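Give me structure tokens for this 508-residue protein.
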Amino acid sequence: MNRLIGAASALFACSSTLLAQQGVRETELGSERAVTRHLQNGEESKLPLSELVELGKRLFLANWTDQDGAGRPLTTGIGENLVDTSKPLIGARGMNRISGPDANSCAGCHNSPRGVPGGAGDFASIVFQMAQRFDFVTFDRSDLVRRRGSLDEAGRPATLQTVGNARATPDLFGAGYLEMLARQITADLQRTRDSVLPGQSKPLSSTGIVFGTLSRSSDGAWITRRVEGLPPQSLVTRGSQKPTLVVRPWQASGTAVSLRELTNTALNQHFGVQSSERFGVGTDPDGDGIENEVTRGDVTALTVFVATLPVPGRVTPMRPEERHAIADGEQTFSRIGCATCHIPSLRLKLAGGGYIEPGPYNSSGNLRGAARTRPLTIDLADPALPQPRLTVSAGRDVVAVPAFTDFKLHDITDPNDREAAEPLDINQPPSSPRFLHGNRRFLTRRLWSTGSAPTHFHHGLFITIREAVLAHSGEALQERRAFEGLNEREQASLIAFLESMQVVTPPN
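Here you go.
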């Protein structure tokens, strides 16, 4: 294994070693590095916000190369050693559209509308979530080694439909407000949790959202079976261990706690770039010859760039009849029950100024709170940040976030349609039997940018909003039938209302 690491390291370090031997600076002729400035740890807290955001944007736009550390010759996208280390991911095996690395730029997928960094992606940018646990997906039925190229953990031949969960690239607009809402809701749920005594039950709610009921038995054990809308990671209890009740607002199945966690994971899965924050300082876990590929400061800059992206808005047509139709459609949206889950607006208390990075609920492998550095506090209403932004109520430090979501997981799939379920439950450990049992629960889609989305639903297989509406079933069956019962004009007005919620880019 060490010899393989050495061989791969030598191969990938060759060009940068030659440059160093010749005394050539990285910005001079011949350098093919995309990132020529990395933040030193701690530097992120000393920079002006505008400079930190600009550095984050450069990282988001960067086309990572092997000289930056892109590629992971000896590891999978979930950070484990390859099953077969005799076949490193180098040369023509260095990229794989299904199992990754599958991209070389954040903006390569997050680029709609009109090439706006941070946007959604069309069908061509769909990823296969957790197919990255394979070495190099080939679907070669003669390959009998599990998780190498064709067979899954159970020894079953993988197919394009079962190798991973097909997921559309979501947009990230308004992300800072969304994450702070999730943290606020989590804090509220935990306060209620901490007030529950043995033998008691209490309803869980925050910001008008009901999350079911939390109970304790007479001996103090926690009972979570009546808690609703949270992923299993947030409900784990062992003995007297409290369930965390953490709201996870990122990824379609509510898997990631924070933008920071999303960033650390995506860098490795999609580009093969390992952050020192997660993989250790001065280490080369993937054997490509490059250490500290992304610093803690870099991750902060990337996260802050995403957190300060502008919010979506409303596009108002010039013709009065169209404006009236949109207004009618918004009323119909609420009347038929869509607003039950797609809550039009949630109140966010911006205590302390706004967005705080890093967050307090990050999982292992991600910087948390003030453990090693003083948290950054960013005023999301700062007019110097990209526009448009949300308006804070005068003297109240409260902002209404019109995201049209409830931050809960719901099953809106047809129970009789096997194709409606995802093949993997990525909220379970990959080594567990439940991982292969599939998933039917998804976060309520945020609709405040739905008119700009190139595709719809978690898998991005629906091109029109109407298709997505008609695909609702399960917990949303009643609302779908109500939509089907509308007359033609009422349906058209509701669609027009949804189309009016778009990413609004400032004029050049």
